[in-house]
Structure formats: structure tokens, C-alpha cells
Amino acid sequence: MSTRSGLEWLVLQVEALYRHDASGRITRFNGPPGDDDAAPLFFFGRAREGNLWRLRADLPDALVRELARLAGAEAASVDLGALPERAAVMRERIEHHFPVEHEWSGAAFRFPESVPRPGGVREVCADTSVAEAFPKLAAALAGREPVFAIEQGGEIVSIAYCATVPGAAAEVGVDTVPAFRGRGFAAEVVSAWARAMQARGVIPLYSAAADNAASLVVARKLGLTRFGSDFHFR
Which end of the chain is more exposed for a tag (fewer CB within 10 A), N or C? Predict the structure, then answer.
């Protein structure tokens, strides 16, 4: 059983997801080279013991102080699905300076210390051709190792990989060909990935958007423990 608090898990997660400057401000998403995911303008994490927040490095100091004041006024909640009460005010303050193109909320999970060994999964090399099934991912597998896949009929149909550059922890990314979803393949490749990360001394983490029912089902199948929630503006 983990001895870390939910807040400690949130720190691991936010530091796995983003790179920070010396003052703790977010500079970019912590993806491998070539990953162009933008850093969020504002990140808010909730655990039962309390909350944490991070702000993008280029926000004006006055806005940073205002957002920190609003975030600091958010009460801790046992309802990990609760959105920040001041989310609308936070967004309004940000939009005085930057357009908000996306608002995201979701659940953050940790793996058990002993992850079941899946069957029918193999590790694939970064130069393995997955272009037919995953054209967007095929050109960016390098830097996402270890990568695990399931094949059907000689074709890769489900794949799990490092969504973030491994440090103390790493987030998993998973994709399944639409025609093969709902068969449990995602849970199997994620399980293989998590076992490999644990063997390397890296803490595996899993996130799911609040409206992504399939991703939440994978978390349940794997017996993952929810330690917090994420909310951010991008």
C-alpha cells in the first residue's frame, strides 16, 4: 500500500506532465522531442488532503497573483470530481490576457505495486512501422519507449507508450484502432507498460478525461486507485 498522500501523488503527476522553471512556473509539456502539446495556462489539482496549482511562465505577475489568490481560496474536498468553485472567474481573469481555447478536467490514478502480467502483448521498437494503424504516432515513437503492442491478424491494433519523458514518474499514453476497442486490449498494453516502468524504477501514472468513459473503464479493469483530479485551461 502506498504511503504517499494524495497531494504527494499530485506533485509527482504535475512534475511528470510539465517542465518548470526555477520559480515553479510551467514552461512546456514534458513530452519527447517533437511533441508540440502546449503547456496549460493554469493547472489545478485536487486531492482529498488539499489542492495544488501551477501557472504558465509567461503569465503577467499580477495575473499570477490573482489566480493564486483564487486557487488558494478553494476548499479541500473529498469529492475528487468537483470542479474549482471559482473556475469561471479564473477563466475570465485569464481571458483578459490570453485566449482560452480548451478547458479540461479529469481523474488521476496510480497503479498497484504489483501489476498483473498480461498475455499476448509484445514490446516493439521505436522504428517499428505503426503508420497504418496510428499515422500520427508512427513518426514520434522515438523517445516514447518502452512501447508495448497487441497484434491481430499481423497488424498492431493497440499500443501503450510513454506520453511524457520518464523521470521519477511517467504518464502512459494508449491508442487502440477504433474497430478493436471494447475488447480489453487497452488494459493489457497499459498493464505491460506499467510493469516495465516499475522494473525501471519509474512510477507509472494514468490519467483519464472526465468525459472519456472508455478510458475510465480501463482504469477500473486495471484496479487503479484514484488519488486526485486535474483541471486546466489551455
Answer: N
Answer whether residue 67 shows pLDDT above 70. Answer: yes
Q: Same domain, yes or no, for 10 and 43?
A: yes
Residues 139 and 220 in one domain: yes
Is the same domain home to 23 and 103? yes
Same domain, 128 and 219: yes
If asked whether residues 71 and 166 sit together in one domain, one would say no
Segment 99-137, tens digit of pLDDT: 999 999 999 999 999 998 898 999 988 666 676 788 877
Phi-psi region of 212 (alpha: psi -120 to 50; beta: other; left: phi over 0): beta
Which residues span the domain enclosing 127? 122-226
User: Rounded to whole angstroms, how far apart are CA atoms 159 and 130?
Assistant: 9
Domain count, the chain: 2
CA distance 109 to 190: 13
pLDDT of residue 190: 98
For 69-88, give the DSSP string: HHHHTSPP-S-TTPPPTTHH
Given a cut of 90, whether residue 12 has pLDDT beyond it is yes
Count the Cβ atoms, other than its own, within 10 Å of residue 21: 9
233 falls within a domain: no
Across 7-146, the runs of DSSP E, i.e. the strands, are 18-20, 26-29, 42-47, 50-55, 103-110, 122-124
pLDDT tops 70 at residue 216: yes
Q: Return the bridge partners of 78, or none.
A: none
pLDDT score of 104: 96
Q: Does 223 score more than 80 pLDDT?
A: yes
